[in-house]
Amino acid sequence: MLKTLELDTAMTPTETANRPPAYNLTIVGGDGIGPEVCQAALDVVKAAVGSARTLTCSDFEAGADCYTRTGIAFPKETLEACRSAHAILHGAAGLPGVLYADGTEAGQDFTLQLRNELDLYANVRPIKLYAGVTSALRRFEPGSIDYVIVRENTEGLYASRGGGVVLGDEVATDLMVITRKGVERIVRYAAELARTRNGAPSDGVKRVTIVDKSNVLRSFAFFRKVADEVMADYPDIETDYALTDAMSVYMIERPDTFDVVVSENFVGDLLSDLGAATVGGMGMSAAAELGDGHGYFQASHGTAPDIAGKGIANPVATILSGACMLEWLGHRHDDDYLITCAENIRRATSAALISGAARTRDVGGEARTADCVEAICKALA
Fold it and tell me: Picking from 34-48, 98-112, 135-149, 220-234, which range would have the lowest pLDDT averaged per residue?
């Protein structure tokens, strides 16, 4: 653990009764630009929340740099801090060349292990084109791309990490794992999310698009079968289908027809990065990893070690992830104030992007990381 800001417990009963609601956040900056964008998000979150709520932030380490220094990528004390926190905010993890003996990245163990340890089964990736940002799909205006990819986060192809088989130097295998429980809960999550949204931008229809490769693989055919059973409970939500390869085309040709997209773990990973590229790149793409009892929030991008420490990283994705964190905490704890704070961050970010004050080089501007934070905090005020 690096530092902890402790709550003052020496309070009278009256002071205790009047004390603002408090939330404990575990902060893991990670590697590369991770600490920079994580701090930027915290600065904005604290500006949005103000003194009306107490946010107790405790910093812990994990990732490739931690592994290089200690031989452990994910310390036990960091896991326990994540387990006990109200929410977890992360920067990014992993560095080129910091590998285990099997060739996999050591830094990725933090995220991958945390998903299993805390059962963070829903990876939620908003794909939204904000005003002030030009899409690579130039014919689509801000607001016309606004959907969410919901990716099953604990099984699928990634469940095989560490368990695959390498035979000599000739053959390697990894297994796809699809369970009824896993499909049922992720599709139900997607359908419930669709009920809260305004539908696809093109027609306003509340829609869940099931993405799979059911025409080839039995595992995906099972995914679709179970998904259909779940969607039968949601007659108010339109069910749509796309094969994985076709979906990569549809996301370019007609992204405005999607509302909520649900898929297996590996497929969702690929598609969500493609979606990010259509709304300004990875620096604009927030992410939330959610379970029934825990929430973990980070940007979708990597560690970008080539620009680490230069003060030019785009913090918007992590700032928007911070907004997702406040919104989730608000719903979980019946705290409407936090939900309002989350929406305020999104509005302020949009305003700062439109003005150009929060546009970094990757989205066609000249702003530095600190400029983004200053502009968004000014818009909040």
Answer: 98-112
